[in-house]
Structures are given as C-alpha cells and as structure tokens.
Amino acid sequence: MAFTSVLAGLGAVTPSNIVSNEQLAHMIDTSDQWIRERTGIEQRFICDTLETTSSLGLAAAKLALQDANLRPQDIDLIICATSTPDKTFPATATLIQAQLGANIGIAFDIQAVCSGFVYGIGVVDAMLKAGQAKNALLIGADTFSRILDWSDRGTCVLFGDGAGACVLRAVDAEEANGKGVLANVLRADGKYADILNVDSGASSGSRVGKLRMEGQAVFRHAVTNISEAIIDCCAKAGKSVDDIDWFVPHQANKRILDGVARRLNIDEAKIVVTVQMHGNTSAASVPLAFDVAKKDGRIKAGDLVLLEAMGGGLTWGASLIQL
Ligand code: ACO
C-alpha cells in the first residue's frame, strides 16, 4: 500500500518570561530602534530556571496530540528537532516519550539547528511512506537563551525560546485525496559551519559553549538558499510559487523574509510573520508560526502551505503540505 503523510494536529508553547527590546537595552548597549530596524524583533520569550527544552517540547506535544485527537499510546514515532537538548544524551525525544507515557516505537533527535523542523518533516515523511510508523509526533524545541553570550549584542538580541509540535499520520494515498506532504527539499553545505556555530561541545572543550555568528554572511546565504529551496520544492510537487496559499518561514529576521519575497515575487500578505513576537526560536520557529496562523484562522483546511528554513551547518530546506 502507498502511504501519504497527512498533518493531523499542531500545537505550540512559549515559556513564561517575555523580554522586550527595552528590557534588553537596560542590560546591554543596544536600543529598541536598532533591533526593530535590523530584525523586526520586538520581544522574545525566555525560559525560567525550571523550564527546559523537554518541558517545552512536552507541553507542545500534548497540544498537538489533543488537536489530532490521539492518545500518547497511539504514537509510534517521536522525533525532536533541537540543538539545545536537556542532556548530551539520551535524546530529548526519549525524555518527552517517557513523560507522555508513550513507550512503543521509535524516538530520536534531529540536529539541523534552525532547519530542524523542516528536516524533521522530511525524515518523518520518508519513514511514514516506508511503512516504519503510523502516527508520528514531530517536535521542534529550543532554548537558545542557554547558549547565548549575553555580552555579545550582535547575537543575544536575536533569539528566544519555545517549542512547537505536529502529528503526521500515514494514510492510504488514495484515501488521502490529495492531502499530505507533497514534497521536501533538504540541503546542507558544511563548508560554512564557521559562520554560525556554538564554539564548544561534549568532545571539543567539555563545556556547552556559546553561539557565534557572522551575521552578514548568514544573511546573504539565507536569502539565496531559501529562495532556491522554495523553487525546487514547488517544482518537485508540480506546483508554482503562485499556487501556494501560505508561506510559513523560519522566523530569523524580517529582512530575510522580505528579501526572499522580493526575489520570488511573493505577495507579502501570504507570509506568516511572527518574528516580532518570538524572535528566532530556532527549530521551534516554524511550528510556532504555523500554530499562530492556524489558530487565528488564516491557515485553513484545503490550503497549500510551504514551510522553509535555513540554519547552522549550513542546513536549509522546504516542505510543501496540502492541508
Ligand atoms: N544594538 C546596537 N548596535 C549593534 C547591535 C545591537 N544589538 N549589534 C550590532 N551592533 C552594531 C555593530 O557593533 C556595528 O557597529 P559599528 O558600525 O560601530 O561597528 C553596527 O551595529 C552594524 O553591525 P552589523 O553586524 O554590520 O549589522 P547588520 O546590519 O549586519 O545587522 C544582523 C546585524 C541583524 C545580525 C544581520 O546581519 C542579520 O540579520 N543577519 C542574519 C543573521 C540571522 O538572522 N541569524 C539567525 C540564525 S541563522 C538563521 O536563522 C537563518
């Protein structure tokens, strides 16, 4: 039997503390005006000491399961996309699995930084189509506040914490009636690892490390790579960019979103923008934005939705989903 991966549920959460640009301006040499003009960010959510990637991921996972009307024991594949796991091992997905009480099937993490959720859609889609699972829970969760150098104003103003999750179900392709993940494009180019990375880790320095970034270089790659991924993904699905009802991009910077929109002649009214609220939440950013636009009624059943992201690695990609 041929399977299609159909989106069955969605959920997202942000941590308890909101930190505005003005609050940051009391801590470091920056201003609300500089941050807004360069990035579009107005505030971000930051974890308190008890909140972790797994606690946020668990909360988002429960909402996605509720939305899909499924129980934890129905889930036979859990993937968590994160670059800020609670522990070096075990995988955050297994911690979430245990707390959900879902102890059958497969659980592991994906590390593709800000592209993690889009990479996750590609991996889940391939596994469901191969018959390896029936009901998959994909979580994108990150707590970048824990890896920021709070004395580096060029990076610490950009990021926030959060988590989002979706349930994808393997459905008989004929019964799916055109719904489901239509195409995925996943790419990486490791020669650019140095322009966006964390400067230490378990096997090289024995500390968690801090995020380092060459902002302008990342910016240039982002607009080019994301645009190409969108075009390739549409071509793979036999669709045109104009066919897409909603673009749900990774929320790194409003100027990156504007740059891609200009390059591909996308109507800005079709782009979901939440960067002003959340900042860059890495693997959580796409499902957080998706959830906002679904809850406020913009994204509806029957819509054609494109998800895209680029992140450290460099990694990037796009997924096209017919709801
Ligand atoms: N507040 C005030 N001034 C600042 C701040 C700040 N927070 N940060 C940097 N500056 C200063 C710099 O020190 C510099 O001052 P100088 O001219 O006196 O030397 C000046 O502002 C300009 O700095 P640039 O780094 O050249 O600023 P730029 O216009 O490139 O904007 C930014 C920086 C916002 C990081 C931009 O390069 C960018 O958006 N890059 C994309 C990076 C990104 O989004 N990364 C996220 C991860 S990857 C992804 O998710 C796609």
Look at the structure and give the CATH class of the largest domain: Alpha Beta
What's the order of the H and E elements? EEHHEHEHEHEHEHEEEHEHHHEE
What's the total number of strands? 13
Structural shape:
globular
Can you walk through the features of this model?
The protein contains 11 helices and 13 strands. It has helices at residues 21-27, 32-39, 53-68, 92-100, 116-129, 153-156, 173-176, 215-237, 254-264, 275-278, 285-295, and strands at residues 3-13, 17-20, 43-46, 77-81, 106-110, 135-143, 161-172, 180-188, 196-198, 211-213, 246-249, 304-311, 315-322. By secondary structure, it is an alpha/beta fold. Helix 8 packs across helix 9 (254-264). The model has no long low-confidence stretch (mean pLDDT 97). The chain has 2 domains: 3-176, 3-Layer(aba) Sandwich (Peroxisomal Thiolase, Chain A, domain 1); 180-322, Thiolase/Chalcone synthase (Peroxisomal Thiolase, Chain A, domain 1), CATH 3.40.47.10. Helix 4 links the parallel strand 4 and strand 5 (106-110).
What is this structure, in a nutshell?
With 323 residues, the protein is α/β, with parallel strands linked by helices.
Give keywords.
323 residues, alpha/beta, Peroxisomal Thiolase, Chain A, domain 1, 2 domains, five-stranded mixed β-sheet, four-stranded mixed β-sheet, 13 strands, globular, binds acetyl coenzyme *A
Q: Layout of helices and strands, plus pairs?
A:
Blueprint: E1 3-13, E2 17-20, H1 21-27, H2 32-39, E3 43-46, H3 53-68, E4 77-81, H4 92-100, E5 106-110, H5 116-129, E6 135-143, H6 153-156, E7 161-172, H7 173-176, E8 180-188, E9 196-198, E10 211-213, H8 215-237, E11 246-249, H9 254-264, H10 275-278, H11 285-295, E12 304-311, E13 315-322
Parallel strand pairs: 4-5, 4-6, 11-12
Antiparallel strand pairs: 1-7, 2-3, 6-7, 8-13, 9-10, 12-13
Helix pairs in contact: 3-4, 8-9
Acetyl coenzyme *A is lined by residues 30, 34-35, 38-39, 114, 153-154, 157-158, 196, 213, 215-216, 218-219, 222, 250, 252-253, 280, 310-311.
